[in-house]
Amino acid sequence: MNFLRVSALSVNYREVPILQDVSFHQEPLERLAIAGETGSGKTTLLKAIGGLVTPAAGAVHFEGEKVLGPLERLIPGHPHIAYLSQHFELRNNYSVYDILEYTNRLSDDWLPRIIEICRVEHLLKRRTDQLSGGERQRVALARQLLTKPRLLLLDEPFSNLDGSHRDQLRLVIDEMEAALGVTCLMVSHDPYDSLSWASQLLVMERGYLVQRGRPAEIYERPANRYAARLFGKFNLLPAGGRLRFLRPEHMQLTDQQDDALPGRVVQARYYGSFWEWEVETTAGRLLVQTGKPDPGKGTGIHIRIDPQAPHHLVSSDF
Ligand SMILES: Nc1ncnc2c1ncn2[C@@H]1O[C@H](COP(=O)(O)OP(=O)(O)OP(=O)(O)O)[C@@H](O)[C@H]1O
């Protein structure tokens, strides 16, 4: 029995297919992230898992039992699955403490524990309309945790947060998993959030699940051009009738000209921790990630493939 099993799930909105034949499973404490372009069906998938939309076909099973849709339950949703929506609402004119206490369905000793984990102690007396975006996010998360979920569905939890609030929320999620044993399934359109957090990634494209794998597998060996682009830029180098897929950091500048590809720098862009050079070569325009600054447009250079780079060959229609 899987902790969560999604089987051949399809969802339509007014007869338009939004999710088509999606199947996967998740085990307890496995960190699963769903990536995909806007409109690819990520939120709809979370809602179907949480019992908030009715599938047109297929089913979701949680701990061996079928998750019922909104028409099959008096109160939509599953009692052990919490859903932190992108557009969560906190009632106005209530203090944070009142909201949390009101929601608490657990024994009283849980409340201070969750307040501490979510780092909201200093906010308890404030009204909900007196909070910043990051603070509201942590209060909303605390509120969901007080329903004692076993599965927490997080829809773009970092999307409106700056760097320091993101880091803080990341710590909250880590602690919550460890201290409360909550399993998380996260939707994120930001490649860095999903690559660095997940143990398994799902890639959604126009309602279909097109790839599932470990983050490094999907980053280095994407199933198609769409999955490749979601996680950053890439090069395709001719290799014996096929194309070799290489990320810009898999290309190296070299002084040794044997076996190297000559080229001329077209443009150099600065990204803080690295530079990216765009280089015109006989194999096409290539991107090279390097620590070296802009050498000037037209500079002649030589490139080689990092000997440690993955060997991912794709067809010419990639
Ligand atoms: N209630 C609805 N009625 C009709 N169509 C909907 C409804 N909700 C979503 N859709 C459509 O379903 C598709 C998938 O939407 P969904 O919100 O699941 O995508 P998403 O991948 O989560 O997008 P985003 O990253 O922008 O949140 C979109 O084309 C959207 O317009």
UniProtKB/TrEMBL annotation:
Occurrences of domain ABC transporter (ranges): 4-231
Family annotation (InterPro entries): AAA+_ATPase (IPR003593), ABC_SmlMolc_Importer (IPR050093), ABC_transporter-like_ATP-bd (IPR003439), ABC_transporter-like_CS (IPR017871), Mo/tungstate-bd_C_term_dom (IPR008995), P-loop_NTPase (IPR027417), Transp-assoc_OB_typ2 (IPR013611)
GO molecular function: ATP binding; ATP hydrolysis activity; transmembrane transporter activity
Keywords: ATP-binding, Nucleotide-binding, Transport
Assigned GO CC terms: ATP-binding cassette (ABC) transporter complex
Gene3D superfamilies in UniProt: P-loop containing nucleotide triphosphate hydrolases
Transmembrane segments: none
Name of the featured protein: Putative ABC transporter ATP-binding protein
Organism: Flavihumibacter petaseus NBRC 106054
